[in-house]
Amino acid sequence: MYAIVRDRGMQYRVEEGKYVDLALMDKAEPGTKIELDEVLLIGDTDKPRIGTPLVNGARVRAEVVGEMKGPKILVFRYQNKKRFRRRKGHRQQYTRVRISEIVTA
What we know:
The protein is mainly β. It is built from no helices and ten strands. The model has no long low-confidence stretch (mean pLDDT 94).
């Protein structure tokens, strides 16, 4: 069973027992239980249930594993014939969670 959840404007495909990297949460200590209640779709082997816009009574329970950083992205700015070159790096921070169960109504 899988579900598609929305968290702060972004959509994620989650399955029980898998790890998902969500946008950084401020007060999320490792071991904290969280609940994602904006479930857009629940997929079973038979027929997926699509919400309008949300599936009634469905929620996803997860446990915070910790914080991590994504891959480094290099931004290079350049202006032709001006001797202008700037190189910047950025690493996005994420909160890694483990999906414990998908609850349906």
